[in-house]
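In line with agreed milestones, the collection of sequences with tokenised folds has grown. A representative record is reproduced below.
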Amino acid sequence: MQSMTGFGRAELEKGGHRLSAEIASLNSRFLEFSFRLPRFLYGLEFTLREFLSKRMERGKVNVSIRWEEKDRPAWAFDPAQVKAFLDWLRTAKRKFKLKGEPKLEDLLYLPWWVKEELEEAPQGALELVQEVLTNALNELNRSRQEEGRRLAGDFQNRLSLITGEVVEIEKEIPAHKEAYRQKLEARVKELLGEGKYDPVRVEQETALTAERSDVTEELVRLKSHIEGFGTALSADGPVGKRLGFFLQEMGREVNTLGSKALAASVARRVISVKEELEKLREQVQNVE
């Protein structure tokens, strides 16, 4: 099991090209990509999207690629543009009767004073980008697996708490049925008076109410879903959707259990289980 949240970075230097790739992923129900590429690599985006789609299942993924040429100057300089800029400043000075002269620092704000880019992708660019992306993806997966192991440990702890509450509920149910019978009988005596009610009828009503409030089936199904959730935690491959399904089914059984609860102690345990399930739902959203 691995998380959808992670970060990976890699660098590659080959054939006079220097590349770096960063991949950051966040949780999402679907697989979504956002690319930041040099202009001359824009045409490769669709191919890169397909390349990564075969290696990822879910998540909102941000991909950034940087490309440098070792044998190209880091900064461009165009004398013609400098001259044109200075001529424009002098014209503006005369027209608007401005004072002062252009200074060297004024040139730093020109748009050409930026790192130079290639006009088109060099031969073999796709293979180089895929190689550096693969390395970054390996780093990303390592970080996501590490986070996945942490999440799995947290899931196991919460699953143990839920299992403990279910065991206690099972222990308490027989005593609560008897307590309910005694409470019903005492209430009838209070309303009708001693000797003015049919004990057989009271027993029948008590048995009927106990049958309606029986939670044996809900507990059996709940324990089955808990076991399924625990098994999925150790399964290979993406398990986020499967975990979400088991949580949904557990929530359904717990809600029914709560509606049938005969005693405050059982209701409190049901609330505790619901709290743990809600925490699990929040965390499962981060699982691929």
